[in-house]
Design brief:
Elements: H1 3-17, E1 22-23, E2 26-27, H2 31-52, H3 60-74
Antiparallel strand pairs: 1-2
């Protein structure tokens, strides 16, 4: 999965999870909050990767997570 695809997937999941009152057009979602949640999720993955698997900064997975964060910020 590309970083852009993963960013969109995380963002969409949080948009759905934090949606609020429904009107005729659908649900209202705070996209700023959805982005923050998605970015926090990426940081949690990085934290566990570093702690559990002793991954080093600059690894391919670490670079992938950086790319995912950049893609989330673009949304």
């Amino acid at each position: 999965m590309t970083a852009k695809d993963k960013a969109e997937e995380l963002f969409d999941k949080y948009c759905h999870a934090i949606r609020t009152d429904e009107d005729d057009d659908g649900y209202f979602t705070n996209i700023i909050q959805a982005k923050r949640c998605a970015l926090l999720a990426v940081e949690q993955v990085r934290f566990f990767d570093e702690r559990l698997f002793f991954a080093s900064k600059g690894s391919l997975f670490d670079q992938y997570l950086d790319d995912v964060k950049r893609e989330i910020e673009k949304l």
